[in-house]
Amino acid sequence: MRNSELIMQSLDQLFPDAECQLHHKNHFELLIAVVLSAQTTDERVNSVTPELFEMYPDAHALADAELSDVERIIRPIGLYHNKAINIIKLSKVLCEYYEGKVPDSREDLEALPGVGRKTANVILSNCFDEPAFAVDTHVARVSKRLQIADPDDDVRTVEEKLMQYFPKEKWGKLHHQFIFFGRYRCKAVKPDCSDCPLKENCII
After folding, report:
1. In terms of domains, do 115 and 37 share one?
2. To the nearest 10°, the Cα dihedral for 97, 103, 108, 111?
């Protein structure tokens, strides 16, 4: 069995139902949640978004928000000042150019304040079923440990190697499975290697 097939089979057994853990009810909420998730945990983001989305349920509402009000709500997640500025600016752009809707092209997404390639990949994959492989710290760590990528590779290089390594139709699901594997098994500190089915592929 090829290594790519072994990895896919093993992750299917370990995390068959892996999916996005950011709570959201629509494309707009997911976009805001992903922007807020930079350098913090999904759990922390999920702790502030209920109040945020209750007060600002769509781009039109958030575009008109007072910065201090948004900062108060998202303060627990860290970097709250810049994130508050970005999600308000982002909402203004959505209202001005996209009728308040989240655009479905990479170019348009990456032009939004606070949105980079990783966030665009998450939105394209989860909202529009476009093949994309978003690389966060968990995905990068697992990719390097499983020797899909090299230790010194940057995020973009890791993404390119993952896309070459796995079939395009599997990218979206594998993105979530890599996150779950990195978050719950192949941790940065004290990884659980005892009965890992991918131990022979790993450099640890």
Report:
1. yes
2. 80
